[in-house]
Design brief:
Layout lengths: L4 H8 L15 H32 L1 H12 L1 H28 L6 H30 L3
Helix pairs in contact: 2-3, 2-4, 3-4, 4-5
Length: 140
């Protein structure tokens, strides 16, 4: 920064601030867009876990047992639950964008409803998948 008196005076002067996150509430469509990008990144790492499971299944019984133990632990199940939710949320977000690509649902109130439906649908689908999985195993 320059050391001239004029520059220091301008720097000290209070400037108007743009809306900050503490003032501005992000719309649901923006939030879902950000989460869609985050879940896309999470799916990359989750797919590495699926690949590790397949590689373990192809290599030896001991490796497969270890991976199954890791995925069966509370932490492993939590990670798999999050992966399932990320997969469902990203899928429904993709459908939301597909709807928008047709030119439908671009009105503000409709886009907001679709965004909320994406969130609710991803939660419901994730719970249904896990309930069905536990029911198929006879864990209930």
């Amino acid at each position: 920064m320059s050391k001239s008196p004029a520059t220091r005076a301008v720097a000290r002067r209070e400037r108007p601030l743009s809306p900050h996150l503490t003032v501005y509430r992000p719309p649901i469509t923006m939030t879902m867009s950000i989460i869609h990008r985050i879940t896309g990144g999470a799916l990359y790492f989750g797919t590495l876990l699926v690949a590790a499971w397949l590689i373990a299944a192809a290599s030896s019984q001991a490796a497969f047992d270890w991976v199954n133990w890791a995925f069966g632990s509370w932490l492993g199940r939590l990670v798999l639950f999050g992966y399932t939710w990320a997969l469902m949320h990203h899928m429904l977000g993709g459908l939301r964008h597909l709807i928008w690509d047709t030119g439908a649902g671009l009105e503000k109130h409709i886009a907001s409803r679709i965004a909320w439906a994406t969130l609710a649908g991803s939660i419901v689908l994730t719970l249904l998948i896990w309930i069905a999985g536990y029911a198929a195993r006879g864990a209930f």
